[in-house]
Amino acid sequence: MKISVISVGKIKEKYFVKLIEEHKNSISKTIPIDLIEVPDEKCPEKLSDKEMIQVKDLEGERILAKIPDQSIIFVLAIDGKQMSTEELKKKLKQYNDQQICFIIGGSLGLSDSVIKKAHVKLSFSNMTFPHQMMKVMLMEQIDESIKHIY
């Protein structure tokens, strides 16, 4: 198994960066993991629906360009399937010999083009969380799962 995590935007908060790095180091002792950040689209606070779609589409193009070939794609989406840690472990074990790519969208979410590529739509909660925090939470879950798979 090899894992990639593609996220929109750069994590600026040092405490989040430190936690993500700790999990990356732990995971990489067992399997290869790449963390890929694509730039977020700068935009005003108030956007029309059309402008929101345009922003998500631009970010989506950047994401799609970074997905490794032959990846099993997990997108984080509020309307995705909620899984327990145990269920996520089983799902990752199912793809044990493949490239897995997790995708975290920007503040507006993911474009339809990215969501359509997904093999798995994963939701951590019905609540909305900052994408910086989601990256920490995702890394912790991957770390926990890998420890039990290998």
Strands of the widest sheet, in order across it, are 2-1-4-3-5
Helix content: 40-55%
| N→C terminal distance | 10 Å
Q: Write down the Rg.
A: 15 Å
| Biggest sheet character | 5 strands, parallel
> How confident is the prediction overall: mean pLDDT?
94
CATH class: Alpha Beta
CATH superfamily label: SPOUT methyltransferase, trefoil knot domain
Q: Structural class, from secondary structure content?
A: alpha/beta
The name CATH uses for the topology is Alpha/beta knot
* Unreliable sequence segments: none
Strand count = 5
Structure explained in plain terms:
With 150 residues, the chain is an alpha/beta fold. The chain has one domain (2-149): Alpha/beta knot. Helices cover 45% and strands 23% of the residues. The chain has a 5-stranded parallel beta sheet. Helix 1 (14-28) runs parallel beside helix 5. The longest helix has 19 residues, at 131-149. The radius of gyration is 15 Å and the shape is globular.
List the helices and strands and how they pair.
Layout: E1 2-8, H1 14-28, E2 33-38, H2 49-66, E3 72-82, H3 85-94, E4 99-104, H4 112-117, E5 120-123, H5 131-149
Parallel strand pairs: 1-2, 1-4, 3-4, 3-5
Helix pairs in contact: 1-5, 3-5
List keywords for this structure.
single chain; 150 residues; alpha/beta; Alpha/beta knot; 5-stranded parallel sheet; 23% strand; globular
